[in-house]
Amino acid sequence: KAVFISNKAFFQRYTDCLYGLTGTLGSQNSQSFLSDLYNVQFADLPTSRKKYYYQIPSKIAFEYNDWLDLIAKETIEQAKERPVLIICENVEATENIWAELIRYGVAPHTIAKYRRDGDNIEERFRKKPATVGDIIIATNKGERGTDIHVNSSMNVKGGMHVILGSLPKIVSE
After folding, report:
1. 64-172 architecture in CATH?
2. What is the pLDDT of residue 152?
3. Distance from C-alpha of 77 to C-alpha of 99, rounded to nearest angstrom
4. At what angle do helices 91-103 and 64-79 cross, to 10 degrees?
């Protein structure tokens, strides 16, 4: 017999027994909503390892063709030094960026597409870690715990360069 309990009922029933949750806590609005709804508190915990992430100034295009052009040029420039991961909103965007890169003369064999569960990108880069010139175009599956191995020699060049093709809904609201 299957038993269902809603999140709200779970928190209300086990309030005195819950001591921690893991994962991304979301925006301040999301935290306030959850705090009010479930009567819980949040705490930020430092990571156990130093992050080697840095953000460069954003580039924004107002027209779709300009957006494709901007991504293609940035990808080609960055791929001269290190692997590039482009995260797109949907499959159509991955195909359009792929076509734009090909139009610019990028060799198709250097571009990996990760659009659906069947695209086994992790397997490919486990066997041969990503290195200079490798380009990965992914839907948001590429940002959800996908383990893309990067050649350790890329660390001195900044590791993998990540391009967000669109802002996540939580950021753009």
Report:
1. 3-Layer(aba) Sandwich (3.40)
2. 87
3. 17
4. 60
